[in-house]
Amino acid sequence: MALPPSITVAVQQLPLESGLTQTELFEYVFDDTLLSLSFVLNIALAGITILGIAYLGRNLTDPRAKVIAVSLMLISVVSISSYSGLTSGLTLSVVEMPAGHPAEGTTTAGEDGVLTMWGRYLTWTFSTPFILIALGMIAGSNWTKILTTCAFTIAMCVTGLAAALTTSSLIMRWWWFAISSIFFLVIVFVILVDWTAEAERTGTADLFSTLKILTVVGWFGYPILWALGVEGFAVLDVAITSWGYSILDIITKYIVTFVAMFYVIDEPRAITGGEEYGASLPGSRPADD
After folding, report:
1. Do the Cβ atoms of 195 and 209 come closer than 8 Å?
2. Which of 15, 50, 240, 280 makes a 20 to 30 Å CA pair with 172?
């Protein structure tokens, strides 16, 4: 059954749809060695991190320690999938910037617009909650607060994606960016204030202090790069912007993962939950995995 003309036109005008095929985008990426390496390096590091966590966590016995380890592993599971999408051209598009944007009139591989790596927003949307789950559990926070930060981080990433894909108005691009930044600041407040205090009570303050510095300082780099990169003021080109994001991912994902994992494998009393941890009913024990 044919779609109504109005719907057909709307679909054809989606900013994700460019005139370049995936093959052309794939070739464009690998014609730029600097750009392609920013993707490939993260695929390799994510793979190494997954194997490293599997090896380090092979003797874990406490169910709460296992949950933290699995959360840490899932960060890299998302990353290796997302970076594969970027490398293949699946999650790349050429988006024409609105009037007044510094990159207005730019062409990419003969197509009007700039290369938009919208697949990175998928990485952040699905991986950042796992970072927060691990951090929240290490701090000793409750699940209500942990899930609230996860909801805010998903909202932050989705509104960031909206900022990157809005082509109708320059003002609206920055409006979406402002909303995303507000959600980001809520998360930062929870980490720096609430979870820091809870880590003091839990006894994980030293570890949490290291993790929060790596995480928060790294996370502040993302909106700064967005503003300076091709999606914002276009001070940095696509390859440099991509490398900036990749370096931040290395710090806030893989380095944070191993710092936390080397602590968790010793199963200190501060992070263990006991044999009944994870049971849905009082007095019951979760089955061995």
Report:
1. no
2. 240
Residue in this structure with the two tokens 């003021």, named with its chain if needed: 233
- In the chain the domains, ranked by start, together with CATH numbers, are 20-264 (1.20.1070.10)
pLDDT digits (tens, 9 = 90+) for 183-210: 999 999 999 999 999 999 999 999 999 9
At residue 108, the 3 state secondary structure works out as strand
pLDDT at residue 276 in the model: 66
**What are 90's strand-pairing partners?**
none
Specify whether the CB–CB gap between 228 and 236 falls below 8 A: yes
Distance (Å, rounded) from C-alpha 74 to C-alpha 50?
8
Residue type for position 259 = V
Q: Which of 95, 99, 92, 89 is nearest to 112 (CA)?
A: 95
Asked if residues 118 and 91 have their Cβ atoms less than 8 Å apart, the reply is yes
Q: Is the pTM of this model over 0.85?
A: yes
Q: Is the pLDDT of residue 7 over 80?
A: no
- Going through 185-240 in order, the beta strands assigned E by DSSP cover none
